[in-house]
UniProtKB/TrEMBL annotation:
It comes from Helicobacter canis. InterPro entries: Antirestriction_ArdC, ArdC_N, MPTase-PolyVal. This is DNA primase TraC. The keyword GTP-binding does not apply. Residues 285-295 have a biased composition (Basic and acidic residues). One of its GO terms (molecular function) is nucleotidyltransferase activity. Residues 268-295 are annotated as: Disordered. Residues 1-64 form the N-terminal domain. Its EC number is 2.7.7.-. Keywords: Nucleotidyltransferase, Transferase. The keyword Transferase applies. Transmembrane segments: none annotated.
Amino acid sequence: MPHNPYTGTIYQGINALRLLCDEYTESKYLTFNEIKALNGSVRKGERASYVLFVGQKPITQEERENTRGYVFEDEEGRLWQKIFKKIPIFNITQCQNLDMQLLAKHQKQHNIHFEIKQRDRFQENPFIEQILKNSHIPIIHHNKDRTYYCVNSDTIYLPPKENFATKEQYYSTALHELGHATGAKHRLGRALSGDFGSVSYAKEELRAELYSFLQALELGIDYDIKNHASYVKGWLKILQDDKSEISRAIKDGVRMVSFVKEQWYPTKEQERTPQKARVKPRIQNKLENELGLER
């Protein structure tokens, strides 16, 4: 997983997706000031990657009147302003003269290798099976190649597991159909009645595929970004290359991941307590390029 060994931050959700799209050989990232603190520098001509930071700061009633952006009040009546920042970071392969011994001390201090190993350990197939079980959505394995979610019976239909080349392919497919299931009226309530090839059908397929991709990323399942992008691009054609629809679909995909985490992730007794979702709706150049989108 992409991470900052200096601070111990393990990037998640869309931030992780954006960094994974860079395809560097190293997963370590640093800010410009951290690179300087490690006696290093960024090589000439290197371009930064960006992660989105979301925070909040207290404000007064007087400040509220002159404040633009999202302001909310907590249970104790205090006012807070949401802060969104794009932070430039660099992969360590873009740097030179870094004090690697000093960096190793920071990494050891945060025990970050242990944290990443823990995430890997928890992202095994039994964890995904528990999510599917906790959804209480029947999964019927039939002797057909067709995979689909039936709205009327609230049932997922999949081929037998042995029909898939890898376990990762099976779980990626299962999560795609689980994504559709989150759209049921008693869950997130999306439009699921469109006929194959229609605009509404294409919109839902976009959301299910982006959810599957984001959830696979969250759970540590191997994925093929070109395959996901190709699938998404196909449905985007039906939408007449409406590029703004990708942004809306990503927002819904993030909402679907949050729903699954809050409703169906294993409890502490079953497996572990999941972390709160922190993913935000942005997408990296590499995925946009695969989709044929331009800024």
